[in-house]
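Annex B.
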Amino acid sequence: MSEQKVRWGIMSTASIGKRSVIPGIQESKRNTVEAVASRSLDNAEKFAKELGIPKAYGSYEELLQDPEIDAVYIPLPNHLHKEWTLKAAAAGKHILCEKPVALDEVEAQEMIDACEKAGVILVEAYMYRHQKRYEDIKKLIKDGEIGDIRGIHGVFSFNGATNLENIRYKKEWGGGSIYDVGCYPISAARLILDEEPTAVTTHALFSPDHGDVDMMAAGIMEFSNGVSLTFDCAMWAAFRNELEILGTEGRIVMKAAFLGDQSYDIIKGDEVTTVQEENINPYALQADSFAESVLDGKETKFPADDMIRNMRAVKGALLSAEKQQRIILNEKEIKTYA
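Oxidoreductase: predicted structure tokens.
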């Protein structure tokens, strides 16, 4: 008898699904993609045929009504994440929702509450956090390999500015570089430090030609003991996705921190040690981790309130850029700094 697998439905024909997430699910051990839905049945059928998906639906509602679907992946525009997560939960489907999971922490809380009430799992799709090297790096830091942490620097940028119809350039849809790629170094710093930031200051380029969204942003996010994350992110700059962890005795550098090769360098003075992790598809790792929770009842790799805390930090970074102020991040609310 073959092992039970999670049967997935894909909610939309978005490029991130076609390029990365669906192939990852198909490559994983305990998952299978059974259906795709689009607002156009013709688009859904073409997409399904191209990716070898058995069923196609002309509406998201039809997908949610399919009793043979266990879980859905939601790569819709950011402002639709809450609406369709709530509908999927009500239909009894487990949910992998593209990052950022919501527009703010209030929405994230509503989504988590609805999923808990429905008895379904909600996971935010930060695939890089399933790479083994992040666990290994955290252990190296704990063991004192590079001394005491003094700071983290993270960048994620690409240039897609010529496509003015891109949904990332619709402010009311949750567009902008902080939501799209800035969330990666922010979430990585929280992961590595195992704590939450206390304040953030961000400066951004808002482009009238791109819906007035932040096309590039740079900031400093404050943690305890004088440690900070300095970061920049962009949708109108050369491609980079790097992370550096600076310690008193050395540093750890990931030249491809979120996408690409899963190696990292440990640098101490003139000595550079390159550690090459096995390049396992992180989207497949993410899918199998999800399946463990659905099929085996295992706790999700990250607790639900991690989504709330991450949204507080990400939203705070955007708010700082919009208000041109330092933003205080606390447990109850985001406050502007007077």
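The longest strand covers residues 236-247. Residues 171 and 230 are 24 Å apart (CA to CA). Further annotation is deferred to the next reporting cycle.
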